[in-house]
C-alpha cells in the first residue's frame, strides 16, 4: 500500500462523507480519478442515492479517464438497478486500475464487480484504508447483513450523569457549541430518533438548524400508544419534514388516522415487556431503508437499546454542572447486577465543544 494510494483514498473517503445522511438506502461512496499523479475527476453519491460516485467522477474526467487509476471507497456495483452498473462504466471508459477500499457485501454485488473488472483487464487493488471505509459504510453493511441501521446514541449530561433537574428542566445543560455539534450530527444521519417521553417533555422539532439549506433527516418517534400532543411542533411540521411514528398494536385507530392525516408515516412494531421491542423497531427502520439513526433519548429508550446491544456509537456531551441525585438520570433502568454484564465501549476520541467535553465511544471488539 503506497503513500500515494492512501492519500488518494483518504480524499475519496472525505468526499463520500458528504453524502452521509443524504443518500440512504444507498451507501455514501466517494470516488477520485488520478492520471499521471493529478486528480482529473471526483464524485460522491448524491442526494437520494443517485447518481453514484463513479459516473460523476468519470464525467468530470472525460477522455482523461482512459489509462487512469480510480480510487473508490466501496466496490463498484455490478447489477442493473435504476442506473447501469458502475463497473461497466469504468470498463467502457478504459481505466487501467481500480483501487477499492472494501468489497460490497450486498449479494447483488459481493465481489462480482471486482471480478468483472479483472476479466476486462483492469488491475484491481483492495484493502487501502479498509478500516476507515468499513466504519464509514457500517450502516449500509448492517442493513444488508443484519437488517438494521447503525445507531448512534447521544447523551448530553451533567457531571453526575443527569439530563434534567427533578422538575424536568433540561434546556440547556450544554452550551451553544455543543448544541451546534448535535445539529451537525443530525445532518450526517438518515434519521433522528427520540422516545415518547422526550417528545412530550421537550416538544422538539428535531430538525437541523443553523447549517444552511440541507436535507432534513427523518424524525422517528417511538411511542407505543401514539400519545404525543397533536398540537405540538412535531404535528405542526409533519407535512413538511418527514415524520415516522413507531407504534405498538395497542395504538388507537383514531390516533393512527389523525397522525396520517397530518402527514406522518406509521411504522408498526412488536412490543415486549410492555414496551416497543427495540429489535423489532430497528428491523422496521432498516426495512424502510434507513442506514444511520441518531438517537437523542430519552433515558428509557436509550437503556432499551443498550440493554439489547443495539448501540454502535456513543456521543456523550458532559457539561460542567452538577444536578444531584434528585435530577433525572441519563439512562433508564438496565437491570445490571454484575459489572461483567454491563455494556462496554471503547473510547475513540475526546473533544472540547465550547465549555463542554465530548467523548466518542464505539462498540468494543469483544461485542
Automatic annotation (TrEMBL):
Residue positions of the active site: 54 (proton donor)
Pathway info: Cofactor biosynthesis; riboflavin biosynthesis; 5-amino-6-(D-ribitylamino)uracil from GTP: step 3/4; Cofactor biosynthesis; riboflavin biosynthesis; 5-amino-6-(D-ribitylamino)uracil from GTP: step 2/4
Protein keywords: Hydrolase, Metal-binding, Multifunctional enzyme, NADP, Oxidoreductase, Riboflavin biosynthesis, Zinc
Swiss-Prot/TrEMBL catalytic activity: 2,5-diamino-6-hydroxy-4-(5-phosphoribosylamino)-pyrimidine + H2O + H(+) = 5-amino-6-(5-phospho-D-ribosylamino)uracil + NH4(+); 5-amino-6-(5-phospho-D-ribitylamino)uracil + NADP(+) = 5-amino-6-(5-phospho-D-ribosylamino)uracil + NADPH + H(+)
Cofactor remark from the record: Binds 1 zinc ion.
UniProt binding sites for Zn(2+): 52, 77, 86
Residues annotated as binding substrate: 170, 186, 206, 209, 296
GO function terms (MF aspect): 5-amino-6-(5-phosphoribosylamino)uracil reductase activity; diaminohydroxyphosphoribosylaminopyrimidine deaminase activity; NADP binding; zinc ion binding
Gene3D superfamilies: Cytidine Deaminase, domain 2, Dihydrofolate Reductase, subunit A
Residues reported in the UniProt entry to bind NADP(+): 156, 172, 198, 202, 298-304
Domain CMP/dCMP-type deaminase: 3-125
CDD domains on file: Riboflavin_deaminase-reductase (cd01284)
EC number, UniProt record: 3.5.4.26, 1.1.1.193
Cofactor: Zn(2+)
Entries under Pfam families matching the protein: dCMP_cyt_deam_1, RibD_C
Example GO biological process: riboflavin biosynthetic process
Keyword Hydrolase in record: yes
Claim: Oxidoreductase is one of the keywords in the record: yes
SUPFAM superfamilies in the record: Cytidine deaminase-like, Dihydrofolate reductase-like
Role, per record: Converts 2,5-diamino-6-(ribosylamino)-4(3h)-pyrimidinone 5'-phosphate into 5-amino-6-(ribosylamino)-2,4(1h,3h)-pyrimidinedione 5'-phosphate.
Family according to the record: In the C-terminal section; belongs to the HTP reductase family. In the N-terminal section; belongs to the cytidine and deoxycytidylate deaminase family.
Protein name as catalogued: Riboflavin biosynthesis protein RibD
Organism of provenance: Pelagimonas varians
Gene encoding the protein: ribD
